[in-house]
Design brief:
By secondary structure, the protein is an alpha/beta fold. The protein has 2 domains: 163 residues, no CATH class; 59 residues, no CATH class. It has 6 helices and 13 strands. The chain is elongated, with a radius of gyration of 18 Å. The chain starts with a helix and ends with a strand. About 3% of the residues have low confidence.
């Protein structure tokens, strides 16, 4: 998790679009062995999806995951929000786990957010609702500033009395009459405070972790063409 977040943070700071294009070009060139490389999307039931680098046979469509390759090993798994434990969360997708080595993690994230957006235009992709590493927090904060990525504010699904920084506070909902945006805010509220600020300047509402992210386009998916297959 730390490796993929460090690499992604570096690329975001330098300029995401040229670097992601560089990663696409690198993938299409096939690495040092000039293999026919791509990304495979796998499904584990209806509510879990993985994105992983693989060598693909262009004639048969068969593939082999690059688990030992020095540059291209990498996988991201996302899961559908569970209404009972997470809340409705716009019926969006949540990062479940991620790993990458060799600096190619950012491209997987771009594909994951486009896939999540395409498969639920009203939802998108969001951080884990309870545990997010410091490196991951920095990445989602960059996402929060990207002009090509759209943002929806999530509400809380656990209003009521809470202890925030040693004091008892009322954890209020932003839109009590709008249940579809209710989502667990344990991580952002615990880190940034349980106070509710409709303007988003303080407390959990100000956190990049309290939102869901989506894209209106699938430019990365389109650029990959037949190098992206869904198993």
């Amino acid at each position: 998790m730390k490796l993929i977040m460090e690499n992604w943070k570096k690329y975001l700071e330098e300029g995401i679009h040229p670097k992601i294009q560089d990663q696409i070009d690198k993938l299409l060139r096939g690495g040092m062995m000039k293999k026919h490389l791509g990304i495979v999307i796998t499904h584990e039931g209806e509510n879990s999806v993985g994105f992983q680098y693989a060598e693909i046979n262009p004639e048969t469509g068969n593939f082999t995951f690059l688990k030992k390759d020095p540059i291209f090993p990498g996988v991201i798994k996302i899961r559908k929000a569970n209404k009972e434990s997470d809340g409705p969360c716009y019926d969006g997708w949540i990062i479940a786990s991620s790993y990458s080595r060799g600096g190619m993690g950012p491209l997987l994230y771009e594909v994951a957010i486009e896939w999540a957006s395409r498969n639920n235009p009203e939802g998108g992709l969001m951080p884990d609702r309870r545990t997010v590493s410091p490196d991951a927090i920095a990445v989602w904060e960059k996402f929060n500033k990207r002009t090509d990525i759209k943002i929806r504010q999530l509400d809380t699904n656990h209003p009521g009395d809470q202890i925030s920084r040693g004091e008892k506070v009322k954890h209020l909902q932003l839109t009590a009459d709008k249940p579809e945006d209710d989502c667990a805010q344990w991580m952002p509220a615990g880190k940034y405070g349980y106070e509710t600020d409709p303007e988003g300047k303080t407390g959990w509402v100000s956190s990049a972790l309290s939102k869901i992210y989506y894209k209106d386009t699938t430019e990365i998916i389109n650029a990959l063409g037949d190098r992206l297959i869904e198993a």
